[in-house]
Amino acid sequence: MRRLGVLRRCRVGWVALALCLGCGDDPRPNLLLISIDTLRADRIGAYGYERETTPTLDALAARGVRFETVIAESSWTLPSHVTLFTGLPPSFHGVVRPNQRLAETIPTLAEILRQHGYRTSGITGGVFLEERFGVARGFDQYRDDGVDFSTALRIVLRILERPPRAGPFFWFIHTYDVHCPYDPPARYARMFDSRPPRDRLDTRGRCGNPHYNRMPLRPGQVAFLSDRYDAGIRYADDLLGDFLAKLDASGRLDHTIVAVVSDHGDEFLEHGRIGHRNTLFIESLRIPWILAGPGIEPGVVTEPVGLADVMPTLLDLLGLPVPDLEGRSMRAVMRGEARRNGERPVFSENQWGEELYSAVFGDHHLIVRRQTQQVQLFDWRRDPRESRDLLGERPARDETLRRLLSERIGRLDAARNRNAPEIAPGPSDPEQARLRALGYVEVEP
Ligand SMILES: [Zn+2]
């Protein structure tokens, strides 16, 4: 990948120039953005889960800010990550199907950070984060060949152990270790195993939607998969804990803002499916966002937010200009300086497979299936399994929420029509194999 020299970084503006003159002891914090793919918020201790899945994330949340209600704008990896990288909802950035690529004209977080003198690096589990989707733009170095989390963190540490070059670093680290096929190391599987032997499945090679390779599952087998999912979370959390401890020992953690997010949740037959991507129920959408580091006072933000808010918030925290985006900076809300607006809706959408739209309005969650015109409304807080459809109980409320979502769908349609989609190159053979390993067996154009 292209590497920028100090001189070029110094040309981007007087702020960067002033800072670059003091290269070597740049006072700006480093940024570590970690995406744990497929991590549901409700499986995290800091979000109320009773099992000990996340001591590291819980500790990070205790010393930082935890966003209580984070709704992914999509329930699959590619559109959600492009939203994370651009601050734009899926239909606005235009990458909504598995053959689309981010247009060169849309600025990315890594690109902006690089323009301001950050050394930008990414390492990912690949698949929907491969360079062919345009997601590597702005990174000085970007690895997308499917390394696991343990390997990725080891590589990052090795690079960070070298004598620091000028300017702060931005590292984006992504892992599929929690994702189906739910295959953590045996030691972790044993920690969370609650099922008798008859419920156990060999999970390898079985990943897929809409059911677990269309095999009917007994409740005990679903619970087994759910145990394995928890074990994968604990494994990823422990790896992250070791990594942060080493970063701390080297003195770098004090100067690093750490942001942990996911891109969507996962389903365990709450609505008839295993996995994600096929629905927009709350188990597919509610994810964590935890922020800790220099200048961040501990707290909890209850206002609903989306992944589009991450980029403007991070740029704002780093003291960089925030572009005009759909997402907005939560910095003032984090500091208690802005009034909370509990009714700010967060919209989600899926265009791969069935066309789906949803809006979280505080406690209410409205879901529209475009083809069938089916509409459902849930109180996701009081009914977290979204089993009781409230539509029809209060017609005036229903009408208001439906109108708001309908207006939003009109804006999303218009945005998609404006952006001619760029077509991504097809997967290479190894890329195709990794797609299949994660269960994406029907990647149609
Ligand atoms: Zn994902």
In short:
Helices cover 32% and strands 17% of the residues. The protein has 14 helices and 19 strands. The structure holds zinc ion.
Throw out a few tags for this protein.
Alkaline Phosphatase, subunit A, alpha/beta, binds zinc ion, 445 residues, 4-stranded antiparallel β-sheet
Describe the model.
The protein has 445 residues and is an alpha/beta fold. The protein has a single domain (6-437), classed as Alkaline Phosphatase, subunit A (3-Layer(aba) Sandwich), CATH 3.40.720.10. The protein is built from 14 helices and 19 strands. It has helices at 6-10, 14-21, 55-63, 77-86, 90-93, 109-115, 149-161, 186-191, 219-249, 282-285, 310-317, 331-334, 395-418, 429-437; strands spanning 30-36, 65-67, 70-71, 100-101, 119-123, 141-143, 169-175, 256-261, 267-268, 274-275, 286-287, 289-292, 299-301, 305-306, 346-350, 356-361, 364-369, 374-379, 422-423. The chain has an 8-stranded mixed sheet with strand order 6-5-7-1-8-12-2-13, sandwiched between helices. The chain has a 4-stranded antiparallel sheet with strand order 15-16-17-18, covered by helices on one side. Helix 7 runs parallel beside helix 9 (219-249). It starts with 5 loop residues before the first helix and ends in an 8-residue tail after the last helix. Zinc ion binds at residues 37-38, 77, 263-264.
